C-alpha cells in the first residue's frame, strides 16, 4: 500500500474503532454478557493500536522505504480485519468457532511488527 492509502486506511479504522468503542460502552452494555463485552473491548483495543500502527508505518515509509514496510502495513490491515473482525462477530453472535480464526489475525500483527523491526535494522544511517 502507498503511504497515503495506508494513512487513509488507518484513519478509517480509527473512525470505526471509536464508533465500535462507543457502541460497546453505551449500546451493547444491556444486550450482551460481560464476557462478550470484554471480547468486544479487546477487538476495539487491538483495532485502535494497529490503526495507529498503520499510520506510523506510513509516516516512516519515506525513511525506510521498501517491501518490508509495505508488507507490514498490509499485514496490519489484514490483522485488523481478521483479529478484530472475528472478535466483533463472536461478541455479537456468540459463535465460538469464530475464535478459531482470531489467532490468524494475531499472527498477522506479529509479522507486521517484525517487519517494521527488520526494516529499521536494515536502514543505513
Tag the structure with descriptive keywords:
125 residues, mainly alpha, 80% helix, 0% strand
Unreliable residue stretches:
none
Major pleated sheet: none
- Overall body shape: elongated
The portion of residues assigned to helices is: over 70%
Task: Specify the structural class.
Answer: mainly alpha
Terminal CA distance = 24 Å
Give the H and E element order. HHHH
Short description:
This protein has helices spanning 3-27, 34-60, 67-93, 102-122. The chain has 125 residues and is mostly helical.
Please provide a written account of the structure.
With 125 residues, the chain is mainly alpha-helical. It has one domain (3-122). 80% of the residues lie in helices and 0% in strands. α1 packs antiparallel against α2 and α3 runs antiparallel to α4 (102-122). It is elongated. The model has no long low-confidence stretch (mean pLDDT 94).
Draw up the topology in text.
Blueprint: H1 3-27, H2 34-60, H3 67-93, H4 102-122
Helix pairs in contact: 1-2, 1-3, 2-3, 3-4
Keywords: Membrane, Transmembrane, Transmembrane helix
Family: Belongs to the UPF0382 family.
InterPro entries: DUF423
Amino acid at each position: 500500500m502507498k503511504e497515503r492509502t495506508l494513512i487513509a486506511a488507518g484513519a478509517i479504522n480509527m473512525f470505526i474503532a471509536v464508533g465500535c468503542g462507543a457502541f460497546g460502552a453505551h449500546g451493547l452494555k444491556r444486550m450482551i454478557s460481560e464476557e462478550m463485552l470484554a471480547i468486544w473491548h479487546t477487538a476495539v483495543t487491538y483495532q485502535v493500536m494497529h490503526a495507529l500502527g498503520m499510520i506510523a508505518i506510513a509516516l516512516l515509509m519515506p525513511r525506510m522505504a521498501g517491501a518490508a514496510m509495505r508488507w507490514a502495513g498490509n499485514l496490519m490491515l489484514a490483522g485488523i480485519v481478521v483479529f478484530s473482525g472475528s472478535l466483533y462477530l463472536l461478541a455479537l453472535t456468540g459463535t465460538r468457532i469464530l475464535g478459531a480464526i482470531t489467532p490468524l489475525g494475531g499472527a498477522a500483527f506479529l509479522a507486521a511488527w517484525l517487519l517494521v523491526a527488520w526494516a529499521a535494522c536494515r536502514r543505513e544511517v
